Structure formats: C-alpha cells, structure tokens
Amino acid sequence: MLFLLFKIRNERYCLDVSRIVEVAPMVIFKKIPHAPPYLSGLFNFRGTIVPVIDLSALLYEEPCRPLLSTRIILVDYIGPNRKRHILGLLAEHVTETISRKESDFQAPGVEVEDSRFLGDVIFDEEGMIQRVEVERIPPQALQEYLFSAGKDEAVDSE
Amino acid sequence: MRRYLKGLRISQKILLSSLIFALPIVVLLYFMISGFNHTIRFSNQEIWGMKVLEPLERLVELVSEHQLLVRLYIEGNKSVEDKINGNGKKVDEAFSALLKEGKRLEVPLRISEKHLKAAGMEERFYILNIHKNWQELNSSWKTISSTTQNDGQHELIMVPVQALIKKVGDTSNMVLDPDLDSYYIIDVSLLTMPKVQNRLSSFILDVESVLFKGFRTQTDAVRFGSFAALLENDLDRLRQSIATALAEDKHYYGESPTLQKNMPPLLAGYESSLIAFIVVLKRLSNDPAFNIPIAEFMETSQQVIESGSALRAGSMKELTILLDRRIDNFKKKAYAALSLSFMALLLAATVVFFISRGITRPLRKVADIAGKIAAGDLHQARESLETIKNAGFDINDLLIDPSKQVKNEIHQLFYAIATMTSSLNSLLAQVQKSGIQVTSSSTEIAASARELEATVAEQAASINQVTVTSKEISATAQDFAATMNSVTEMASKTAELAGTSMTDLSDINATMNALLESTRQSTDKLNTINEKMGNISQVITTITKVANQINLLSLNAAIEAEKAGEYGIGFSVVAREIRRLADQTAVAALEIEAMITETQTSVGEGMAAVELYTRQTRTSTESIASISIRLERVIEHTQGLKPQFGAVNQGMQMQSDSACQISEAMGQLNETAIQTRDSLIEFKKVTQQLNEAVRDLQNEVNRFTVSS
Q: In terms of domains, do B113 and B197 share one?
C-alpha cells in the first residue's frame, strides 16, 4: 500500500493514497467570515467548491508556513450522512510517498479527543510516522454544518 | 485637763459624762443607806440599852423587895429569912446578867468607868462597885438592927442603879425613839412602871410600918388616901400609854401580833391587882375601924409587885420585838434601795453603752470610708456606702431626696460623705479627662514645635546654602572677570592665527572634493554587480519552481499509478524516478540560489559601506566649508569683541557685588532664623514643663480609683 507523507511542525504523518483525489499547489483561498481558524477557506477545484482545513492550525493553532512544499491534499470525504465530498487538507512538505503493508502499523495505545483523527504508527530510519484517518478530521462542531448547504452527491454503490 | 478630754474617744467621753451623772446618785444613795444604817444603829442602841436596862430594872424591884423583907425581919418577923435568901439569889442572878451585858455593852452605852467619870459620876455608880456593895449587904443583912440602917444600906445600891437606868436610858436614845408605839411602850416599861413599882415599894414599906405599929393616926389616913390617888393616877397613865401604843402600832411597820395579843391581858392582870391594893389603901384611909393583918396586906402587895413586874417585863419584851421589826424593816428598805439603785445604774449603763455604740459604729464606718477616700479608692468608698443600705438606710434614696431620710446627725454625715464621694468622683473623672486632653494638646503642641523647629533648621540650612552659593557666584564672577581679561588678550592672538588657518582649510576642501568623485564611481560599479546578481537569482527561482512542479506532477502520477493497481506499477517507477530528478534539480538550484544570495548580501554591504563613506566625505567637505565660513566670521567677531569684553567685565563685577549683598542679607536672615529656632527651643521647653505638670496632675488624680 502507498502512503503520502507530509509534515506538520516537523512531525511526520501519512495518508492512504487510495483516499487522495489529487495533490494541488497552494492557492489563495476565499475566506469565510466567522469561521474557526483551522478552516482556511474555500477553493475552486475544477469547478467544485472545496473547503480547506489547515491541519497545522487544527493541531497546534498555528497555520502552515507558506513554503513551496506546502500543498493542498484533496481527499475523498464521506460525511456522517453517508454523502461523498471532496475535502482539502493543507499540510507542509507534501513531497514524498512511502510504501508499507497494512500489518506494519501499530496502535499508538493512546487517543486524545481533540486529535482523534491521528491513528496507527509505522517506523522508518528517520523515526515515527502516524497515520491520518480522513473521516475523523473535521471536528464535531464543524461536521454539523460542513456541506450542509451544498448540493448533495450520493455515495457510489461501490 | 482639756487636752486630756480632747484626747478621749467619743465612747469614753460618753462614759465619763455618765459617770459624772452617776456620782450624785451614788452620793445620794450613800446618804440614804447611811440614813437607814443610822436608824438601824439607833434601834440597835435601843436594843442594847434594853439588854442592860432589863437587869437594872429587875434589880430595882428585887432590891426594894429585899429592903422590905429585911425590914420585916428586923421588926421581928423571922419567918421571912428564907424569902430574903431566895430574893438574894434572884438579885445575884440579876447582877450576873447585868455584869455580863454591862461588860459587853459598856462602850456603846458609855457606862464604863472612864465614861462615867467623864460624865461626872462617882465611882459608886460603876457596876462592879454596885455589885460589891450588894455582896456586902447580902452577907451582912442579919447584922442590920435598925430600919434606918437598913434603908441606908439599900440606898447604896438603889441610888446608883437608878442613876444607871437614867444614864442608859439617855445613851440608848430611848427617850428619842421616833415611833409612837415603841415610844409609849418605853414610857410604860422604862419610865412609868419602874416609878410605880418604886412608889409601890415605898408605900408598902410605909403601910407595913403603920400596920406594924398597930394603930393609925389621922395623918396616916390622909397619907394613905393620897397614896391611893397617886396610884390611880399612875394606872390611868399606864392605861393611856398602852392604849396609844396599841392604837398607833399599825402605823409603824404594820401591827405587831404579839404586842396586840400580850399587852391587854398583862395590863388587865396588873389593873385588877393594883385596884385591889388601892381599895385596901382607901379603906385604911377612910374607915378607921378597918383593920387588916400584915400577912394579908403583904400578900396583896406581893401580888401587885409581881403583876407589875410581869407587865414591865412583858412590855420590855414587846419593845424588843418592835425594835427588831423596825431594824428588819429598815434593813429591807436599805436592800431594796441598794438593789433598785444598782438596777437603775445597770440599766443606765446599758442604755449609755448602746447609745455610744450607735454613735461610734457609724462614725467608725464614716472614718473608714473617709480613709478610703483619702487613700484614693473612691470605688471602694462608694461600695462601702452601698453596704450601709443594710442598716435600714438607702444612700441612693437619700441622694435622690435628702429630706426623706435625714433623721439624725449620723445620717447627715453619711449623706455628706455620699455627696462628697459622688462629687469627688465626677470631679476626678473630669480632671482625669481634662488632664488627658491637656496632655494630648501639649503633646500636639510639642510635636508642632518640633516640626516648626525642623522647618526653621531646614530654612537655616537653605539660607546657608544660598549664602554659600551666592558667595560662590561672587567668586566665580570675579574669576570670570579675570578670565575674560586673558580671553580678550587671547582673542586678538587667535584672530591672527585664524587668518593662516583659512588658507589651509581651502586646500583640504579641494582634496575632499576629489575623494568624493572617486567614491561615487565605485558605487556605480557595485550597483551594476547587484543588478546582474538579481537576474541570476530570478533564473534560479524559475528553476526551483519548475522542479517543484515536477515533484507535484510525479506525486500525483504516483498516486494515480497506485490507484491503477498492478497496471500502474511501471508508471509508478517512472514517476518516482522523475520525482528524484526533480528533487536533485531543486537541491542544485537551491545551492546556487544560496551562493547568489550570499554574493548579493556582500555587494549590498559593500554598497552600503561605500554609500556611508560617500556621505561622510560629503559631510566632511560641507563641514570644512561651513567651518571655513564660520572661522571667517569668528575672526571678524574676535576682532570686534575686544571692546565688548570691558562691558562684560563691568557686568560681572556688579553681579559679584550683588552676590555679596545677597550673601549679607542671607546672613541676617540666618541670624533671624537662629533666633527663631532659639525661641522655639524655649517654647518647646515650656511645653515640656506643661506636659510634666499635667503628668504630675494625672498621677495625683490616678491615685483615685474612679468608679465608672
């Protein structure tokens, strides 16, 4: 299995590529007034309005630095109402992939409520890499109104 | 004496005055008791008299009888010898009683030899001599031959015995007896009866001698008639005396039962025998034919003498009883008077004791309270006053309404003490309060004075400073004036030197301008280098962007290849290679970029340095130009300065003078300040004294405990 690597504040994380639609370069977002700080704004992805969540802001309340390697990871997101959406995730050093088996992952043994999207852990020569679960990324407060106003798109039968 | 009286306590004074009052009572009592005693002694004297008189009287009777009997014997009636002997025995008995009593009572009755001699009575009146005469007579009566001798012999006894009776009657106060009953009994027993008996004896002797003669003459008859009349008269007197005694008896210490009972029968017995004798006498007087044998006559006369003797003896006995009763009565009276007086004195003493206690106890209490007040313990004094309540006396009620309870001086005293205590209490409280106020005020004053003193001291210091400063100013001004003089001199020299400096400065200016030109050229060159470097940097950035794009593309390609599964494996290998190349390119580009940035930084720094240098050079040049202009002006000024220095110098001098004046004024001010400070110190001392005085006052007042 292939995983996309990225960094948040020098901590390394990975994301299953099967859930990734595309990696897009950094653009200027449409700001949403009164939105929480981790919601960076809206982004036009090939004609679809995509909300972008800044993972650095979400985890450390500090937005991602404006580096060339800072990119938008567009993922398939299945909402609580079983609807499929595209969600943008902003992260740093989105330049590498890593190939690992599912069985290589180990449970971290601890789960914190505000970062419950951080899942199992693998190793390589540089250190630990933690896996990110897409469905758990939007916080409870955001889930309620995320995609609630938009036109619904039914989940494929697959 | 007065001092001693003043030193006495009140109770002692009261006691003393009571004693003084008791003194006359005791004196009166003494006189009363001695009066009683006198009466008792008086009565005793009578009794003693009686004791002596009784044998004397009997002697009179017995000796008369003896005389009669001896006469009968002489006349030939030898049968009476036994009678005479019996009579002699009785006389002996009477004498022994007389001797016994006479010896015992010869002093109080004044019948001793010495007393008799002093009274002008001869030796023959003395009892022992009388007795001697009797003994002589008793032993020798048979030898008497004539009636004349017989009478003479008996006279020797009878006369002194009768004289003694009179004497003892006088010395035993019999005649002065104060009570009527005893007086009349005395009259009967000691005056009338002996006289009557005596008279009877002589009558009997006379009648007997006539009867013995055998006939009676007319004169004898007349004499017998007068005898009868005399005896009748005597009987009347006796009757009257005894009747009076019996009647008066009840008025003197009550009726004597023995007197009332014994006297009438004795009188009656005597009366009947006497009347019989009188009848005999009358018949002998009136009837010449009447004759009576001597024996019969003697019988009758014997009866009269005996009954008379019984009456006399009985009355004497009754008299003794009466006197005893009187003595008893007076003794009882004396005891009653004594005991009553003592009881009265005791009662008076008790009353005096309680009165004095009633005075001294409250006084002691008051003294105690006053002592407490003196000791300053007003609180306790007030409490003590409260306790007086218990004595039926409420001091609080009294304070509310004084007229209500002030009954006597003690209450007045308590009231005064209570009023005084409460007034003193409030006064002291006020004084204490005032003292505290004064203390705090004086403390405040002292504090203010101290502050003022400090302020004055500060002021003095400030003045000193000003003085010093102004002196300094003066000195400095003088120095400055001196300096100005040398400056004036130097200024002219400077003006000369400045002229030469100006030419040198022009040369420097020219050199500087050349330097400025060369610097500007090097700046231009550096700018060119910088521009070129910027171009290179842009290229590098483009390369980096491209490498980045390639990386992105290869990433997406890898993702797509992964999604394509087995079909995408080859593609994914290519994508990874592309990504590695792109990464290497990016690294190389980044290295170049780093070098360029370094060079650009160095160039920038160089340019900045050159620019700074240029600016400094330009500034120097400008400075030199401006210096040169100013120097010119300075030279001009220096040349024109000289006259102005004089004026400055003058001003300086004036300034110095004014500074001196200021200094002097300040000195005066300083003196005033010192004076102020001194007076303040005085003031402080006085305040302190005031404070001390107040503290003393407070200490004094504090001795008193004030109840709140």
A: no
A108: containing domain? 2-143
Nearest CA in chain B to A1: B562
**B532 part of a folded domain:** yes
Q: In which domain, by residue range, is B638 found?
A: 412-702
Q: How many CB atoms lie within 10 A of CB A145?
A: 8
Q: Which among A17, A71, A95 has CB closest to B559?
A: A17
Cα angle: B704, vertex B706, B368; to 5 degrees: 65
Same domain for B111 and B210, yes or no, is no
Q: Using the beta-carbon criterion (under 8 Å), do B562 and A69 form an inter-chain contact?
A: no
User: Given B155, B174, B193, which residue is the final one in a domain?
Assistant: B174
| Cα–Cα distance measured from residue B138 to residue B85, given in angstroms and rounded to the nearest whole number | 9
Tell me which residue in A17, A23, A95 faces B562 most closely, judged by beta carbons: A17
Number of domains in chain A: 1
Query: Beta-carbon neighbour count of residue B126 at 10 Å?
Result: 21
The DSSP H or E segment spanning A118 is strand A118-124
Tens-digit pLDDT profile for residues B371-409: 888 887 777 877 777 776 555 556 666 666 666 556 677
pTM of the model: 0.47
Partner B contacted by A32 (CB < 8 A): no
Share of chain B above pLDDT 90, in %: 6
Which CATH number fits the domain that encloses residue A129?
A: 2.40.50.180
Contacts of A2 in chain B (CB under 8 A): 558-559, 562, 572
C-alpha atoms less than 13 angstroms from C-alpha of B10 in its C-beta half-sphere? 13
Q: Which of B116, B139, B174 is the last residue of a domain?
A: B174
In a domain, A100, yes or no: yes
B621 close to B512: Cβ distance less than 8 angstroms: yes
pLDDT for A89: 94
Assigned domain for B358 exists: no
Residue predicted with more confidence, A150 or A71: A71
Closest CA relative to residue B133, chosen from B148, B152, B108, B147: B152
Contact present, B57 and B308 (Cβ < 8 Å): no
The DSSP 8-state label assigned to residue B109 in this structure reads T
What would the DSSP string read from start to end of B52-67?
A: HHHHHHHHHHHHHHHH
CATH number at residue B181: 1.20.120
ipTM of the complex in this document: 0.82
Q: Do B559 and A95 touch (CB under 8 A)?
A: no
Amino acid occupying residue B345: L
Pair (B120, B182) in one structural domain: no
